[in-house]
């Protein structure tokens, strides 16, 4: 089980915890929690999905024990508007489609770096919703916040990420 | 939600459109509001560009972070540490 699911689950832990040692600790926590709870695994969910959820929880627990680094406010990363409701800065659409961007190796690093610039409350919601595939209610339950807050944070996180990526992906 | 939805009767600004773009992308709007969004989009290239890059952001984030080719095998000492900790605690 460790060898089969471990690599994919370590990748999950790393998305939340960029430090390799923290991610490895979270993976270890996750397998321990899984072995303890295996009696309660009812096979309704696929084993991989069940382990994925346990790993996400373990990574979030580790994240809570870490001291927060100083971060930029989300407002500084959001688009600004003129009084008439038009956007302040206008740029063209990106040069390349996501598919084209994804084929280039450096895109991967650019996107990871951009996501790491988001304030933690926003970064976590973006990861849970858009990357790990939890829905709004599941995300709200895991984080202990209201569904409305999940929705707002997700939209802001995407807008902020879009601004950061735009400086990379437009001519 | 605390934000009031824009009145379908009045003209949408770019700001309204961007503020509620998540609902538009998720197709979660009342039909009359969706129509108002679509007519704004038809006339406003800036919002069309914004919509496209907003969707592209989600897609490129997904593609970059879910890149399984980076996974590889677990380091052997990590496998061992996990197996040991499970044994110790079971
Ligand atoms: Zn517009």
Provide an overview of this structure.
The complex is a heterodimer of chains A (171) and B (90). Chain A is mostly helical and 171 residues long. Chain A has 2 domains: 2-65, RNA polymerase sigma factor, region 2, helix turn helix motif (Rna Polymerase Sigma Factor, Chain: A, Orthogonal Bundle); 75-169, Winged helix-like DNA-binding domain superfamily/Winged helix DNA-binding domain (Arc Repressor Mutant, subunit A, Orthogonal Bundle). Chain A has 9 helices and no strands. Chain A has helices at 2-16, 20-37, 47-65, 74-77, 98-103, 105-116, 120-131, 136-143, 147-169. Chain B is mostly helical and 90 residues long. Chain B is 66% helix and 0% strand. Chain B is built from 5 helices and no strands. The longest helix of chain B has 21 residues, at 45-65. Chain B starts with 13 loop residues before the first helix and ends with a helix. Bound molecules: zinc ion. Residues 14, 17, 40, 44, 46-47 of chain B line the site of zinc ion.
Give a summary of the structure in a few sentences.
With 171 residues, chain A is an all-alpha fold.
Q: Total domains of chain A, how many? A: 2
- The CATH class label of the largest domain in chain A is Mainly Alpha
Low-confidence stretches of chain B: none
What's the count of strands of chain B?
0
* Through-space gap between termini of chain B: 46 Å
The secondary-structure class of chain B comes to mainly alpha
Roughly what is the average pLDDT of chain B, rounded to an integer?
86
> How widely separated are the two ends of chain A?
47 Å
Query: How many structural domains are formed by the residues of chain B?
Result: 1
CATH topology (fold) name of the largest domain in chain A: Arc Repressor Mutant, subunit A
Task: Outline the biggest β-sheet of chain B.
Answer: none
**Element-level helix/strand string of chain A:** HHHHHHHHH
For the largest interface in this structure, which chains are involved and how many residues does each contribute? A-B, 52 and 43 residues
**Which shape of chain A, going by the Cα principal axes?**
globular
């Amino acid at each position: 089980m460790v060898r089969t699911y471990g690599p994919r689950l370590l990748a999950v832990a790393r998305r939340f915890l960029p430090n390799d040692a923290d991610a490895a600790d979270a993976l270890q926590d996750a397998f321990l929690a899984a072995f303890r709870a295996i009696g309660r695994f009812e096979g309704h969910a696929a084993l991989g999905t069940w382990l994925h959820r346990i790993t996400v929880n373990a990574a979030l627990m580790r994240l809570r024990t870490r001291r927060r680094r100083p971060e930029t406010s989300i407002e500084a990363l959001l688009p600004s508007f003129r009084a008439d409701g038009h956007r302040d800065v206008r740029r063209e659409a990106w040069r390349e489609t996501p598919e084209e961007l994804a084929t280039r190796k450096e895109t991967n690093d650019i996107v990871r770096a951009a996501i790491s610039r988001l304030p933690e409350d926003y970064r976590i919601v973006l990861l849970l919703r858009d990357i790990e595939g939890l829905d709004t209610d599941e995300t709200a339950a895991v984080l202990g916040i209201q569904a409305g807050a999940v929705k707002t944070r997700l939209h802001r996180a995407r807008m902020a990420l879009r601004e950061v990526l735009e400086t990379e992906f437009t001519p | 939600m605390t934000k009031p939805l824009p009145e379908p009767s009045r003209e949408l600004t770019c700001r309204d459109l961007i503020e509620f773009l998540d609902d538009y992308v998720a197709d979660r709007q009342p039909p009359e509001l969706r129509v108002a969004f679509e007519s704004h989009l038809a006339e406003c290239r800036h919002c069309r560009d914004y919509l496209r890059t907003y969707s592209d952001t989600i897609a490129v984030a997904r593609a970059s972070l879910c890149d399984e080719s980076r996974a590889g095998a677990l380091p052997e000492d990590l496998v061992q540490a996990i197996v040991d900790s499970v044994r110790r605690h079971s």
